Amino acid sequence: MRSTTLPQIIPTLSKLYHKIIAIDTLKQHIQLTSSQTLKNTQIYKIIYYLKSKWYVISCKKDLFYIKPPESQIAHEDIIAQRYHKLLKQHCTNDVGTYRYIGGISALEYQYGSSYLNTDEVIIINELKTATEVICFDKTITYKSYRDASKSSIFTQTKKYSTLCPVGAIKIRVASLELSIIESLYSPSTNQQAYITELVRKILKKHKKTLNWSVLESIIRLGKFHSSYNRLYQIMQKVDLTMADSVYALIKRFSYVMDV
Q1: Looking at 113, 144, 174, which one is the last position of a domain?
Q2: 111, 197, 218, 255: which has the highest count of C-beta atoms within 10 A?
Q3: Are residue 157 and residue 243 in the same domain, yes or no?
Q4: Are residues 85 and 40 in the same domain?
Q5: Does the residue 15 lie in any domain?
Q6: In the sheet that 63-66 helps form, which strands lie side by side, from edge to edge?
Q7: Domain boundary at 14, 46, 66, which?
Q8: Number of structural domains, the chain?
């Protein structure tokens, strides 16, 4: 790279300090500093050079944090400053506004006084099933639930989510009842014990305020049969009367399973 290239870029780049931008935006700003049209290979060489000189930190593929080279910032600090807005932007770009935080992410939120575990966030939607990187090692897992006829039940489950404050943003989060049922649906082997214990603690804490009409509405969707059977097993160790109520729901709207 010619020595004159960096001084030409810095005035433009300095306007982007402490921001996270996509590669297309960065490429546009680099192109503006040149009197001639740059090839893609030339632009990527400039980006590589900027990274080597600590003007640019790669947050993930095609996403960059721009900074003065003399300032030091840890990945954890970038996440603390920008994570929630990146989460909302990522969701909006991928699935629009038809989504909510669900499953174990919502369960932890409900239990932890509005705390969101950023390592992996579960987003329920009707368009996409995938796991993607948001920033550095933080991931987002998109899930979509369908009934026996392969039709999405998102519209029905979304009714049991509300707009909640999550860091600097507001985003829909599954209700306590829905987050319990979603978390108990096909839990992974390495998370099952943790989820079971967390549900047990939540039931002990909130057993007097559980919304049984919501629990009945969810089981009527015909999707979460295993969840209610797991809930029944956990409830037997918390409150036998409430366990009987769960069992009555299973007998009426589902079926008994060995889970």
Answers
A1: 174
A2: 218
A3: no
A4: no
A5: yes
A6: 19-22, 63-66, 56-60
A7: 66
A8: 3
Q: Which residue has the tokens 């037997």?
A: 236
How would you classify the pairing of strands 56-60 and 63-66? antiparallel
Question: Among candidates 250, 222, 225, 252, which has minimal Cα distance to 150?
Answer: 222
The answer to the question of residue 179 being in a domain is no
The answer as to whether 180 is a domain residue is no
What pLDDT is attached to residue 248? 98
By DSSP bridging, strand 120-125 and strand 138-143 are parallel
219 assigned to some structural domain: yes
Per-residue pLDDT, 113: 64
Place of tokens 């550095």: 136
What CATH number is attached to the domain comprising 32? 1.10.10
Give CA–CA dist 25/205, Å, rounded. 48
Please give the helix or strand (H or E) that residue 140 lies within, else none. strand 138-143
Structure tokens of 171? Answer: 């985003």
Cα 32 to the center of its chain, rounded Å: 35
3 state DSSP class of 142: strand
| pLDDT per position as a tens digit, 220-251 | 999 999 999 999 999 999 999 999 999 999 99
Q: How many other C-beta atoms lie within 10 A of the C-beta of residue 18?
A: 13
Question: From CA 52, how far away is CA 55, in angstroms rounded?
Answer: 8
What is 56-99 written as a DSSP string? EEEEETTEEEE--TT----HHHHHHHHHHHHHHHHHHHHHTT-E
pTM of the model: 0.90
Residue 57: give the domain boundaries: 5-66
Question: Measured between alpha carbons, how far is 15 from 120 in angstroms, rounded to an integer?
Answer: 32
- Within this chain, do residues 123 and 168 fall inside the same structural domain, yes or no? yes
Tokens describing residue 179:
């987050």
46 and 96 both lie in a single domain: no
